[in-house]
Specification:
Blueprint lengths: L6 H4 L9 H9 L8 H7 L9 H38 L2 H4 L6 H26 L2 H17 L7 H15 L2 H10 L7 H8 L3 H14 L9 H23 L12 H9 L21 H9 L1 H30 L4 H7 L1 H20 L4 H8 L1 H12 L5 H11 L3 H14 L3 H24 L10 H36 L31
Helix pairs in contact: 4-11, 4-12, 4-13, 4-15, 6-8, 6-22, 7-8, 7-9, 7-12, 9-10, 9-22, 10-17, 10-21, 11-12, 11-16, 11-17, 14-22, 15-16, 15-21, 15-22, 15-23, 17-18, 17-21, 18-21, 18-23, 19-20, 19-23
Organism: Apiospora hydei
Protein name: Allantoate permease
Main location: membrane
Length: about 525
């Protein structure tokens, strides 16, 4: 008995080049604005033969070796700026600036407010500026703001810095997501997401905290000031280098040979989601019908809501994680070192569950739901065990950071299921709005007058995990129903076969406008 392959399975099979019979006709349409930049590239580069499995392996190996580490580094350094506020508090940040009541919590919440506002220009620019250049330029700017923390001495000043830091960091998720989708097939994306969106910031932040912890108390500046100066300076240097070496798409990846570049573009036709243009994001490419489709797509809103609730714990733990450890009786230096396993747990979990999601096809929502059981266990341990049970408290706290794997698996869904340049831009921005909203809410659930148990924060996290499971189940149901409806109406999706045009995989059409598109669940 033979089994029918899903569209995601079929993505493994080779996409054949444009036949010579179609080439003359295609060249006439190269100027058509409906064509993706990748389609234009393929139409004008037909001199190479079919891609062999060995060639494809070398193509993937190169992008894994060159692009993923660069994206991981710039994403990690950007995240360090956000989580460093908790470490700075271990070295007198709150006391030196005389914060009162919920002022510190608002410093955690104002950053995602800036992100929400920043998504408006970010959505516009990501359509018109090469994504890697946009990401690196924003990184230089937010790194300069990081250095500005050192001379600041008022709560209002820090609020302004945190707001504009979030404003600039609005570019992170749309650009990273777009770059990954421009290099990898659908089934290859989850483990790469886990690498790029790794939680290494806690590890790096713990190391920086350890370094400044060795600065003598007689130094002219406070230790938390040195922390921000060091981080901002390193970020600026890295971002400037990245601006010149990080490619936007296979079309301007200098580490490929011309033949590899051609096949790297062509093999992504089966994704049917297009590739971000490496340049020439022309005026007029914004399509209001695609923007409206994104806003009215229930799948988009389910992931937006998922991003809201799953990031409520993220917002709280980023701001208060190191403080919770300090409340257990550890010194500032010990507390900073004990935050480093946060990154190990979150990153290791994200890799493991993303690998499972990639191998266990069309089960991403189920994998994410299973992963959510771990932070629920951790939250229960922290709240239920006595405070003097330090080992149990630490184990529970580390398990709480398993909230990161379901988030990483979840963000791969709109990445795999959204087609159309404008629709992708709007979708990624809406998803980032969800991320920012969750991070805004999270710190407010941790009340300073409820330390050290933070009852409201614990209740909020448990409610968020339950809601996340419900939303993932709803996404699975909606996508599965739509796939079945399309199968009944149009039949099973056809693979792009030899003799047909691979360019149809790069048409600037949305997923709803493609009869052969099937949603990954």
């Amino acid at each position: 008995m033979t089994t029918r392959k899903s569209q995601e399975d079929k993505a493994d099979e080779p996409v054949h080049p444009v036949s010579s019979a179609h080439h003359g006709e295609i060249l006439k349409t190269v100027g058509d604005p409906a064509l993706d930049e990748a389609a234009r590239y393929i139409a004008t580069h037909d001199e190479f033969g079919p891609m062999t499995p060995e060639t494809e392996k070398e193509i993937v190996k190169k992008v894994d070796f060159y692009v993923v580490p660069l994206l991981l580094l710039i994403a990690t350094l950007g995240a360090v700026d956000k989580v460093q506020i908790g470490t700075a508090s271990l070295y007198g940040f709150q006391e030196d600036n005389d914060f009162q009541g919920q002022e510190y919590s608002w410093l955690g919440s104002v950053l995602p407010v800036g992100t929400l506002v920043g998504l408006v220009p970010a959505s516009y620019l990501v359509q018109r500026v090469p994504p890697a250049k946009l990401l690196c330029s924003a990184s230089v700017c937010w790194s300069i703001l990081t250095i500005c923390y050192a001379p600041c001495r008022s709560w209002k000043g820090f609020m302004a810095l945190r707001f504009f830091l979030g404003f600039l960091e609005a570019a992170i998720t749309p650009t990273l997501t777009m770059i990954i989708a421009s290099f990898y097939k659908k089934e290859e994306q989850p483990p790469r997401n886990a690498l790029v969106f790794a939680y290494f910031s806690s590890i790096l932040n713990g190391f920086f905290a350890f370094v400044v912890g060795k600065i003598p108390d007689s130094a002219p500046l406070a230790k938390w000031q040195y922390l921000y100066i060091m981080t901002g300076t390193i970020n600026i240097l890295v971002s400037v280098i990245m601006f010149f070496v990080l490619p936007d798409s296979p079309m301007n990846a200098r580490f490929y040979t011309p033949e590899q570049r051609f096949h790297a573009v062509q093999r992504l036709a089966a994704n049917r989601t297009g590739i971000a243009g490496n340049h020439l994001h022309r005026r007029g490419t914004w399509k209001w019908d695609q923007a409206l489709e994104a806003v009215l797509d229930i799948r988009v809103w389910l992931i937006v809501l998922f991003n809201v609730v799953i990031n409520i714990p993220n917002g709280g733990l980023q701001t208060f994680g190191s403080i919770i450890i300090n409340d257990l009786g550890f010194s500032p230096l010990e507390s900073s070192l004990l935050t480093m396993p946060f990154g190990v747990v979150a990153t290791g979990g994200a890799w493991a569950f993303s690998y499972i999601a990639a191998q266990w096809r069309n089960r991403r929502t189920l994998v994410a739901s299973i992963a959510l059981l771990l932070p629920i266990l951790g939250t229960a341990l922290v709240y239920g065990l006595p405070r003097d049970n330090i080992p149990g408290q630490m184990v529970g706290l580390y398990f709480m950071y398993f909230y990161w794997p379901p988030y990483v698996v979840g963000i791969s869904l709109p990445q795999a299921n959204t087609s159309g340049r404008t629709k992708k831009s709007v979708t990624y921005s809406l998803v980032t709005i969800g991320y920012a909203a969750g991070n805004l809410i999270g710190p407010q659930t941790f009340r300073s007058d409820q330390a050290p148990k933070y009852t409201a924060g614990v209740v909020a996290m448990l409610a968020a995990y339950g809601a996340s499971m419900l939303l993932l189940g709803a996404y699975w149901a909606v996508a599965t129903w739509e796939n079945g409806r399309r199968d009944r109406r149009y039949g099973k999706p056809q693979l792009i076969r030899e003799g047909s045009s691979a360019l149809e995989g790069f048409d600037d059409k949305t997923d709803k406008k493609q009869d052969s598109f099937r949603y990954t669940t």
